[in-house]
Amino acid sequence: MRTKAEIGNNEWFGEVPDSWRMVPLPRLFMSSKGMTVTRADLADEGAPVVNYAQVHSKLNNRFGIHAELIKHVPTGMVPKGLKYSEKGSFIFACTSEDLAGCGDCIYNDSEQPVNPGGDTLLLSPVDGVENKYLAYLFSTDMWRWQIRRDLVDVKVFHVNQGNLHETYVTVPPYDVQRRIISYLDERCAAIDEDVAKRREVIGKLKEYKRSLIAHAVTKGLDPDAEMRDSGVEWIGEVPADWEIVPVKADVAIGHGSDPVLSGDIPVWGSGNEPFKTCGEYKEGPVVLLGRKGTLDCPQLVVGRYWNVDTAFDAKIKSGNLDLKFFYYAATCIDIKPYATNTAKPSMTQFDWANSKIARPPLSEQRRIVSYLDERCADIDEAISRQEQLIEKLGEYRRSIIHHAVAGKIDCSEA
Fold first, then answer.
1. Helix axis angle, 323-330 relative to 174-219, nearest 10°?
2. Using one digit for the tens of pLDDT, what is the confidence trace for 84-113?
3. Virtual CA dihedral for 233, 237, 239, 243, nearest 10 degrees?
């Protein structure tokens, strides 16, 4: 436990307001380890459980628990005598892939008991009081500094009971806690609502981008073009002078083994998110085709090879297909026919090679690429602006939480 000198130093907190106490965490909570649960153990029904993955989930706002964060395991898996999470308790993640995630926890603000799962630590309140003030405090970098200073910079960070037992918390008088909670609940709810609206806008922009690409690579840019049936469900009608060809007619699909990528060429992005750099593959650029994607869009990148087990490389082998037109077309290929497992759809090398695309004349391909480059850049810029605003709102949210739990702002006007 920290020494009295360290408590008085208040290195992590600064000056403690009058009437506030600095209390070692073990005085307020009993700690216990979660049960051993893997992803394979999860079931649709049974005993409720929260694993470390749910603690780190983007769905976790850290100030309450909700249904999306609760998984289930067969009732018989729960060890006898396991301490469960009750109202006022916290479930901490024991492992994190980065320092920022060290200290992530879920606050149980409900009457529903939940079992702490794999790689978690449970903090159960000694006196059974509400602890939402501490939920806000635990979310701050200010408090988490106490945990992070003890950790070694390794690939995976581990937070254990000893790390938590060495921490202190500030405890204001109960009426002050209630004012802080009311103040933060109101302001954080307003910020969260604003963020949700901006994420909705981003979702609509991304959907518009996908539909724009799909229309251009299947219908072209001439609204008055004579059309014919392509015979391919996802393509539908195409301009009469376009050909329908299998990917293998113009593209060599590699097995994804040790491609040599170097240098930087312009950003192309992907069907879902932009990528910042592209590489060159030996004598020419390459599209990397993801084996696994989503039912909405296969994962595609151009350039940096991330995992030979999850991608194939695709090189243009004829003069009839523009590489970037193929990239745009590939983002639209319907992956559903290859989704034997709809939760984790996958395309094999054979699937990619035999997929059909619409192939316009080469000059038309390049005109479409130019059009999509310009339009997609505008959409990406609009998405980026929304993301920057979301980041600023997040910074503001963190700031008001920090200042409120540190007693640096008046919360009496909540």
1. 120
2. 999 999 999 999 988 889 999 999 998 888
3. 20
